[in-house]
Structure formats: C-alpha cells, structure tokens
Amino acid sequence: MQILIVEDEHEVASFIKSGLEDYGFSADIANDALQAQVLLSNKEYTTIILDVNLPVINGFELCKIIRSRYENLSILMLTALSSTDSKLSGFDAGADDYLIKPFEFRELIARLRALNRRRSLPSSDPVLKIADLEFNLESKTVKRGNQKILLTARELALLEFFMKNQNKALSRNEITEKVWDVNFDTGTNVVDVYVNYLRKKIDKDFSPKLIHTISGIGYIMQESDK
Question: How far is it, in rounded angstroms, from Cα 167 to Cα 220?
C-alpha cells in the first residue's frame, strides 16, 4: 500500500510514518490540505490517513474534496474527536473508516489491511435486486420501481451490505465491522442513525417494507417480516 498521512503535528506524523514503514508500508506526510492535494496530484496512493484538526481546511472538508476526485481511494480518519456526531460527519464526508486517538498501532494496521482487502475484492453481478429495489454497483445508482433514489456514500455502503445479505439477521456489531471497519462501540448509535436515514429513502413511501428491526439483535432485509 502507498499511504499518505495528513497530519499537522510533526511528531505524530513521524511516529505514524515510522510505524507503517516497520510493517513494510510506504508512507508520505502532508502537514495540511494544500500539501496533501499536491502530493495526490503527483503520486498514486491507495490509502489516506487523515486528521480532522488541520489548518485552513479541516479534515472533514478535505475528505469531501478527496472523495469527489478520487472515488477508489481509501480514507481512514484518525482523530481525537470521539463523539457520535464527529463520526457521522466523517462518514458523511466520505471516510471509509474512523479511528480515535490515542490508538494502538496494531489496530491501525488491522484497519488498513481490512480497507485494502475491500479494495481488492472482485466484482460480481453489478446489479443487486430485492422486490422492486435495484442497486447498480458500477454506476452507484439506486431506484425503487421507476423512482431514482439519491444516497450518500455511507448509505450506499450500508444498502450494499444489506442487499448482499438478504434474509439474514445482521447484528449492529456485524454491520459496524463490515460497513465501517470499526469495532462496535456500545456507546454510539451510528448504525441506528444510518439505518433510519436509509429507511426514510427506500422504505417510507414504498411497499413492501424491506428493512426490519429484530429486537435484541439488529436488522434484516427481506420482502416480508413474517
């Protein structure tokens, strides 16, 4: 993996770079958004480790810029901001994963490897279907019946996971690990928030309902809750 570290604290950036190189990764450092964009335009990276508290342009805004220009680039936000709202802001901006400082380096490496595995998965049937809902994986377009539905990047990832696991009970823990590549935190309701977002867009004005709550477990996607 070619990794770009975007971190304005020089000691932290050097620590991360040194640790990554110990594990055999190649890493460069950018101390702000401008340096990051220059490096991205001149070198091909597979993954970005992105801090939030950056000068001039914060990590959330930079994440949006990067995601709009580099669709296949993996973005891991590494920040001290630990609230649910901060995590949601990161995922809404296009981040693939979110790790909180302070962190264990082994966990960072595990997250990076998981992101790399997801990038390397071979594509299967480009269109997922359930009832009258269709999701084209290549064009990232969703429609139910004849109506097109606009979803954020994180909602698309969640819908893809649901549709690839139809008729299977999915725990919040499993959804978090597979969709966000993060260990489940019982103090956050990120999964529930995003399931509600998704329901409003693909279920609220349609029949049959497709996303169902399983008390004490999590959720299931199926045409009927019987």
Answer: 6
